Amino acid sequence: MTSILSILALVTVSLATMLIAFFGLRLSRTTSDFYVASRTVKPWWNASAIGGEYLSAASFLGVAGLIVLSGQSGLWFPIGYTAGYLMLLLFVAAPLRRSQAYTIPDFAQIRFEDSVPLRKITTYLVVIICWLYIVPQMHGASLTLSIATGLPGWVGPVIVAAVVCLTVVSGGMRSVTFVQAFQYWFKLAALVIPTLFVLFQVMPEYSVPERAAAVAGQLESIGGMSLYETISIILALLFGTLGLPHVLVRFYTNPSGQAARTTTAIVLCLLSVFYLLPTTLGVLGILYTQDLAANNADATILLLPQRIFDGFLADLLTAIVVGGAFAAFLSTTSGLAVSLAGALSQEFFQGTVRGFRISTVLATALPVLIALLTNSLALAGAIGNVFAFTASTICPLLLLGIWWRSLTARGAIAGMLVGAASCGLALLGSSMLPDNDSLWVLMLRQPAAWSVPLAFMVMILVSKSNPRRIPAKVDRVMALLHVPERSYKSPDETGVGRID
User: Fold this and answer.
1) According to DSSP H, which parts of 28-75 are helical?
2) pLDDT of residue 208
3) By the 8 A CB rule, do 372 and 154 touch?
4) pLDDT tens digits, one per residue of 14-50
5) Which of the pair, 379 or 95, is modelled with greater confidence?
6) Of all helices (H) and strands (E), which one includes residue 102?
7) What confidence score (pLDDT) does residue 60 get?
8) Alpha helices in 203-291 (DSSP H)
């Protein structure tokens, strides 16, 4: 019965996703519709869509698993994921929207006067980040499908890739916006329902103060992260959020910079509500699924209903969680595919709708192959590595490019290359070393604490070494980024970020 209901939930989510996408196809008529939904998405709608794509496998499954595995230290992940949006609100959202770019490489081109090398490097980094982010979604789909239905693990990634391709190809950003907004509220309901059932079932047992204190003691007794790892993770999550391509591209869909700020403020509220749920389920998982910590902590939310209930109710709650999990994989992968397809299309296919569709297929095909050939890491940990890489590359470009007029193209290129090399090589090296708690291993396993400052420092020093290379039109561009709009003009009217 469990597998039948779970398959039914999976089919329902997939069909609903495709039907909403086809509805978006009816409204997608121009190139601007495909790339940024013609910049007409209202803040509440856009905030729901951002919540849909941001709450990935790491949020839906990984946070609870990390709490089971690491105890209190796992709480830093939902805190960091949410606080990163406060950084976006303060430093990036409105200026990035005012840049009138379509992609992050477009922003680099506008800010640094058509620097071709910088644009190409930025494009390649966006491609790498998106692919690295998609692979854990595929691993999560494989894990969910194999546990809930018993089907082979390869079926999950293939289903996710097929549905995402149909969604993005059908209507681009316009379709994806409708889909992701729906999926946020669906994911929220898919966790609210089992959480309420579980709490009502177990609360009488743990309402006695002595038992509640015992639970708190059990939470504290689980081995957590060291001080260095905690600081590094916080830096990675805070700064990494500022450079996520699939998140940043959504701000281009707002009608104005003020709307982008309003959107970000709403997202903070939506994320805060959502993360209460996997955190609660993670604490309950310590009580009922602690045996999973040794090998499969990411399955905590999937298996928790079966540990507490029996019969049809257990099967139904499991199916609801499976549906929500697949909504998480689909929504995040859709956002990544849109961002990646936009960058590839602009770089290699002249920004045409046909090129966008070809790029979408390329954006989803390779991660499926990689996922099938690799083993799944802990989902939250795998996404944390992507955040560290993003914080060491795209984030310094955006922060300094928006707020420091003296940044040069050469400095930006040097900083991003050093950040990518240092962070990437550290993560690669840590995978080859024995797992122990020595400082050198920790510094390689969690490199953000030193790779992010290093990237910023290199950008600043290289830019300072040759101030003559500061773009001649930097004052005009800085005014574009920071002066509030009196009246909005589309990219086609201003000529900035234009797509023919």
Assistant:
1) 31-36, 43-54, 57, 63-70
2) 58
3) yes
4) 888 888 877 655 555 555 655 555 666 778 888 888 8
5) 95
6) none
7) 87
8) 209-221, 227-240, 245-251, 257-288
Predicted confidence (pLDDT) at residue 489 exceeds the cutoff of 70? no
- Please name the residues in contact with 8: beta carbons below 8 A apart, sequence gap of 6 or more: 319
Which one, of 78, 63, 150, 21, lies nearest residue 325 by Cα? 63
The predicted model gives 443-461 an average pLDDT of: 95
Give tens-digit pLDDT for 353-370: 788 788 888 888 888 888
Task: Give 494's pLDDT tier (boundaries 50, 70, 90).
Answer: very low
> Which of 72-76, 183-187, 302-306, 463-467 bottoms out in mean pLDDT, i.e. has the lowest?
72-76
Spell out where 350-457 has E strands. none
**Token digits of residue 174:** 């316009």
First to last CA, the chain: 53
Q: Label residues 135-148 b or e (16+ Cβ within 10 Å = b).
A: bbbbbbbbbbbbbb
Nearest to 390 by CA among 455, 444, 339, 341: 455
Contact between 306 and 299 under an 8 Å Cβ cutoff? The reply is no
Q: Which residues contact 387 (CB under 8 A, 6 or more apart)?
A: 236, 237, 240, 241, 244, 448
Q: What are 36-39's contacts with CB under 8 Å, separation 24+?
A: 36/102, 36/173, 36/249, 36/252, 36/253, 37/172, 37/173, 37/174, 37/177, 37/253, 38/174, 38/490, 39/252, 39/253, 39/254, 39/255, 39/488, 39/490
The beta strands (E) that lie in 79-230 are given as none
**Angle, helix 257-288 to helix 43-54, in steps of 10 degrees:** 40
Distance CA 171, CA 26 (A): 8
Smallest CA-to-CA distance from 82 within 296, 201, 304, 237 is with 237
Structure tokens given for 340: 């990646």
Cα(114)–Cα(137) distance, integer angstroms: 34
What is the b/e burial string over 350-384, where b = at least 16 CB atoms within 10 angstroms of the residue's CB? ebbbebbbbbbeebbebbbebbeeeebbbbbbbbb
Residue 491 has what pLDDT?
43
Q: Find the helix or strand (DSSP H, E) in which 374 lies.
A: none
The mean pLDDT value for 277-288 works out to 86
Give how far the C-alpha of residue 49 lies from the chain's centroid of Cα atoms, to the nearest Å: 12
